[in-house]
User: What shape does this take?
Amino acid sequence: MKKRILTGDRPTGQLHLGHYVGSLKNRIEMQHSHEQFVMIADAQALTDNYDHPEKIRSNIFEVMLDYLAVGIDPSKSTIFIQSQIPQLFELTFYFLNMVTYNRLKHNPTVKMEMQQKGMEETVTAGFMIYPVSQAADIALFGGEVIPVGADQMPIIEQTNEIVRRFNSVYHTDVLKEAQPLLSLCPRLPGADGKAKMSKSLGNALTLSASFKEIEEVVKKMYTDPAHLRVEDPGRVEGNVVFTYLDAFDPDLNRVKELKDHYQRGGLGDMTLKRHLMQVLENCVAPFRENRERLKQNPQMVLDLLQEGTSRAKKEGQRKLEEIKDAMRINYRLDHFSTMR
Ligand code: ATP
Ligand code: MG
Assistant: This one.
């Protein structure tokens, strides 16, 4: 039997190059050998955007366009909208009993995001518990392999703690633990050199960026501040241009030669950056064209989303029944008298 994948993205904006190398590339390859569910996590996105539902609403379509444009194939992968699967929210409620309040407060990903988003004092209960809802996403769809970026590792760990606790409390093996799958570039830095390219940090290059946008971003990229003259030897470590070449240039030998040349001296920053611009353009151009074409037919895109969501709903319903059986709470009111 094919192993299950559950992955997804928050529709807070168009997808970017970090998503591509961190997770999408793996999903595109693995959809042939695995049974893949891809979730547009609109409910999770609301936990820190609840006052802008229109932003999340419109980005559902944008993320769907991105998925199709990069090659997530809806005949191989089930693409669905999280908020349309009520079983996820029921399971989240049961899962909340499987984790202590203290443990949630100390989740490193949540702590870091709270700090980044300046909400240490104002964090809502909804945001604090999003790792529990993510555990429900994974468990309801039986996710065994989770292609994610490095920032998600503590969330998978938290999921597995919940799964183990659940199975032990209810003496069952109905839930499976999940394995994170990191890509070769699990954390693409922002073009500004910041630790992570991210929609909310405003340092992202989208998967439909124009060549002009690519040029502007790469021009400003951080290299080696001590590399002043072309003939000077330069540093490769910590040089964002090389980090991007490692992630995007399919010609590994060429990257090695460029690194050697840069370290020897004689390779100017602008020549190097011109090369990166072309590499990024080669990656993004087909996505940009596919996206334009798909945009001409919005009804087809929405129909595909509708189909995937219906499939996911059936699967969610089936699995929730199984889980409630294991918890022995799958009673029906008309049988209530015989149940006591
Ligand atoms: P937001 O700021 O709204 O949280 P994000 O850019 O962090 O947006 P998510 O939707 O949270 O994106 O992440 C979706 C998936 O993409 C996750 O698996 C995450 O680890 C991965 N990912 C996001 N940014 C990067 C990055 N810069 N490098 C590698 N993987 C990434
Ligand atoms: Mg994120």
